[in-house]
Every structure is written in C-alpha cells, then in structure tokens.
Amino acid sequence: MDIKRPHRRHVLSLLGGAAAVGVSGRAFAQAEPPKPAQIVVNHSGGSMGTAMRKAFFNGFEKKYGIRVVETSPVDFGKLRAMVDSGNVEWDLTEIGGQDAIRASKMNLLDKVDPKVVDRSKYPPTAQNPNVFASSVYTTIIGYRTDVFKGGTHPKSWAEWWDVKKFPGARSMRNHPTDNLEFALIADGVPKDKVYPIDFDRAFKKLDQIKPHVTAWWSTGQQPAQLLLDKEVVLATGWNGRFYDVIKKGGPIEIEWNEGALKQGSFAIPRGAKNPYWANKMLAELAVPQQQAVYASELGYPGLNLESLNFVDAKVKPYLPTAYLDKQFWISDEWYAENGAKAQELWNAWMLKKA
Amino acid sequence: MTARGFWPALPALILLLVFFLFPVVRMLGFSVEAGTLDWYAKALGEGLYLRVFWNTFEIALLVTLVCLLLGYPLGYLMATTTPGWATFGFICVLLPLWTSVLVRTYAWMVLLGRNGVLNRTLMESGLTTDPLPLLHNFTGVLIGMVHVLLPYMVLPIYGAVRRVDPAIPAAAAGLGASSARIFWRIYLPLTLNGIFAGSVLVFVLSLGFFITPALLGGGRVMMIAVLIEQQVRETLNWPFAAALSAVLLVFTFAVYALAQRFTQPEATR
Question: Does the CB of B228 have a partner CB in chain A at under 8 Å?
Fold first, then answer.
C-alpha cells in the first residue's frame, strides 16, 4: 500500500493556510506569488474583446502592472489538448455553458478561489466551484420594425410558428440548442417543463417551420445581417448582436418573451501558469461597476445582481436580466448529457428533404 | 531519385515526417483507441454519415469540373497572350488569394442575396421579376467555392500550356488542322498533367471546406468537414472524429489513384 506521509512542506503549507484564514490580509500579502510580465486571457474576440478591454483589462493592467494578452477563439477541443499535453497557454478562458460542465467532469479546470473572487452577490445557480459565470445572454426574436409596425410582430414561439398570421422569411440557428426548446414551447409545453426534451415531438414541430426558414445561421453576426439585408424579416439571435444594430439605429427590435437564457462563463484551465493572477482577473470581472460598463457596450450583463444599479436607464431595457421572468434557462446539465445525441439527430433532420 | 538528389530534400522530408505523417498516424491511433472498429462501423454504417460523405464528394467533383471549364480557357489565354495581358491575368487570378476566405464569403453574400447587387440589377433592368435564389442553397456554395479555388486550377494549367512547344501547333495549323483538332490532338494530351494537378488540388481542397458551405449554403449544404469539426470541438468525441477523417483520407487516396490511372500514362509518354 502506498500511504502518503505528510511531508514537512505540506504541513507547513497547511499551517500557512490556517494562518491565512485567521489573519487573512497580512498572511495573504505574504503568500502572493511573484507577478508575471503577462497573463493570457482567451475569449471569443471581436466586439466582445474590445468591451472586455475597456471594462476589465485596462483596469487590471493599471492596478497590477501585469499585461493582459488576449487570444481567441474559444475552443473546447484546444482546451482539452492543452491540459492533456501539459502545455497550457491560457491563464483564463471563456467557455460555453455545457462545455464548462463537461470540462469540470473531465477534470480540465482549476477551482475558482473563493478567497480571491467575491461571489456573495451572485445567484446560487452561478456559484459553480470551477466555473465563473461572467455574463448572461439570450436567444430571442429579432424583427424588422418596418415590416412589423406597432407591435404586430410575433410575441411567442407559437406565433413564430404561425406563418399565416405572420408571413415572411425566417432565420434560425443551425443547432439543436434553442430550437428544440422553441419547438416544444410552440407546441404547448410550458417553458419550465421542456426538459427532458421529447425529441420526436420537437422535430415533428420543427418540420412545420422548416420550409419557412430561408437561412439556418451558424455565426453570431448572421441574424442581424440577414435582417438588415432584408433576406429575412424575422430571425432568432443573440440579444447583444441585435442590440449592436439597434444602438446604431438599424430597423430592428427585440421580442424578449420566451427567450432562451444562457450563461457566459470563464474558467481557469488546470495547469495554467498563473492561476493566482487568473483568480485576480476573475475578481475584476466580478466588480459590479465594471460589469455595468461591459453590459452597456454589448448588452450582456454580468451576474453580480448589483450591477443593474450602475447601468444607464436607456440601456436597461436592452439587458436580458431585466426580463428574467419572461424567459427560461437552457439546461446545460441536460446538454452535457444529451448534446451529442441532439446534434446527431439535428444533422439527420437537416439532411432530410423538407 | 538519385542518392545525390535526395539530400537537399531531407529537411523538407523531416518536416513532413514530424508535422504531417506523425500527426496523421496519431490521429489514426485515436480512432482505434478502444481496441475496436466500432467508430468505423458507425462512420460507414449510419445513413447520416454516408449521405454526408456522398454530398461532399458530389460537391467536390462539381466544383472541380466547373473550375476546369472556367480555368482551362483562362490558363490557356494567359499562357498564349502578350506578356502585358498575362501579367494582368495573373493579378486578377492571384489577388483574391490574398484576401481571407471569410471576407470573400461575406462579399458573396452581399452580391448574391435576395436584395443583393446582382438580383437588384437583374430586376431593375427587367430581366427577372422575382429575385433568383442564388444564396442559402447549393448554387451559392458552388459559386463561392469555385471563386476560392479557381487559382489552384488556373496556375498548373498555365504552366502546362507554357511548356507546349509553340512549333507543334504551328506545324499542325500549317498542315491544315482545324483549331478544334489542334486542341484535341495537341494541347489536351500535352497539358493533361496540368489538368490533373489542378483537378487534384481543387478536389482535395474542396473536401475540407466548411466555412463557405455553412455561410453560403444557409446551413442546408452539409459537408463532412462540418461534422468532423463538430466531433472535435463540440462533442469532443475524438475517436469518432479520427475515424471519419480516416475514411475521408482513404476515399481521397482512392480518387487520386483513379485520376492518376486515367491521366498519367499519356502525360509521361
């Protein structure tokens, strides 16, 4: 039997830990690892990167004198390859909701240090030990205001499916997530009862809408573009992308009812070179004032519930957290288990001649 | 290859060995990780994957054909015209290569859409009454892919036509051969290796496309690279991704061998 004896070093560090709990401030300052020249944060890039720099990275660099190097895109496969090979380039990475759960299960992530990152103002659902919930986004209905004037647009998934009353080309995401749920809700399933998903019922309902979907989008900027180009008059899309066009005066509006909420998350890859400073960065992402700056840029609010207090009154109506009751949460747990099956059925359904 | 000719190629061979052959072998290893051929059975046994393999080859073949039909006259023209026009041709062919595929794909979306430049021009000129369905379907994918891949067809054909001794067609014309006859009996056989090289390049590159089909096909045109990418990045089923890749690799080699059998004997005669 291989019973590990506590080494002296371990005992000492245990004592150190106990001391840190006792006289937190001073003991911490002593335990702080040396500052690296830079840390690497991986995110989706684009306008999100610009907003993160403005809201979080510039402040972090000023405060600690550590340069924040940004990389993109977000890539679960690459994360796994990095951790497996022991060559982890990222100190912190954005990660999708269901991917975060799977990555935790596959032991690819480090713990978020509760001593460094204050999540006391976060809802209990956003307290995963390995995953930091950075923002909320939602898939909702975007419509052209010159086609649907004065509130004549579809206001539910049942109405989205009603092509007689609401004619015109539509665009939906080329992915099972969101669409399976929307189909079930359109078919009369209450929005808090969609899981576990009944595949047969969902795809049968999707059959009805398929001929009316001109384009199945695969990148986030497509829906807003398709609306602007008048390729379609209705599109499902991520609220921030529509918000961006609305901010610039584009003829688009959002219907929030029955939107599919998701969490944007960040996590520290296991074996990251500067985990302590990655946690310090997460602490920065948790500051409500900075989350408000970020939300005003992109329309993606943070989960620190205080952050809404710091947002301009004109921006508030465009944040999904202002409509939490009207919407429902996508179940990352369900997709972590059934995502592969759902994807395969979706591919087969897409190949089927309509 | 003589022994002396071998040494200068060594760095390149080592590079290929380390960065190409080794990863391919590792990938093949992934696919049989579990000690069974289950993932291959799935790749070759399920209708979905067979259909997508078939789609992929169909599209690749069609893209190659269209590229050949457009690329041969262009390559021929560039090889036989004045140096000034040839340079102009080169600029036109090579310029798009320096632009990202994504940017070009978006440009096509602007041109081909229902309210795009092309459809608006057609409708305003009264040639059509309804917008032509050029985007979010197979046509869009074909146009986008041909545009991206055309240079790979034109350049080898240009090279092949340049290598034809101009005295041969001149002699044939002097003996009274029609231009059609000169093409079929002289240019075509003598440039067959250029056609082969261009076609193989375009065909193989087509097989791996996924941005263009996803964006211009409106999600309806599914190619195998999309499914492999899903398995690698979303589902994280690397053994299955490796099996799909291995099947694609074998199919590609088969097509290559077949094409070589049909073209090579004449070319090396």
Answer: no
Q: Say yes or no: A231 contacts chain B, CB-CB below 8 A.
A: yes
Contact A97, A104 (CB under 8 A): no
Of A75, A218, A231, the CB nearest to B219: A218
Eight-state DSSP code of residue B176: T
Evaluate whether ipTM surpasses 0.90.
Answer: no
Q: Does domain B10-267 have CATH number 1.10.8.60?
A: no
Chain B hits for A343, Cβ within 8 Å? 230, 234-235
Contact call for A229 and B116, based on CB within 8 A: yes
Residues of B in contact with A75 (CB under 8 A): 233
Is B139 touching A (CB cutoff 8 A)? no
Q: Between chains, do A343 and B234 touch, taking CB under 8 Å as contact?
A: yes
User: How close does chain B come to A234, measured CA to CA in Å?
Assistant: 15
Q: Can you name the residues that pair with B53 across neighbouring β-strands?
A: none
Q: What one-letter code names the amino acid at A73?
A: P
Do residue B234 and residue A76 have CB atoms under 8 angstroms apart?
yes
pLDDT digits (tens, 9 = 90+) for A87-124: 999 999 999 888 898 899 999 999 999 999 999 888 88
Work out the minimum CA distance from B20 to partner chain A, whole angstroms: 18
Number of alpha carbons in the 13 Å side-chain half-sphere of residue B5: 2
> A136-187 pLDDT, tens per residue?
999 999 999 999 999 999 999 999 999 999 999 999 999 999 999 999 999 9
Q: Does the distance separating the beta carbons of B109 and A230 come in below 8 Å?
A: no
For chain A, domains (ranges, CATH) are 33-136+264-310 (3.40.190.10), 138-261+324-351 (3.40.190.10)
Q: Measure in Å the smallest separation between the Cα of B34 and chain A Cα atoms.
A: 18
Spatial separation of the C-alpha atoms in residues A343 and B235, rounded to whole Å: 8
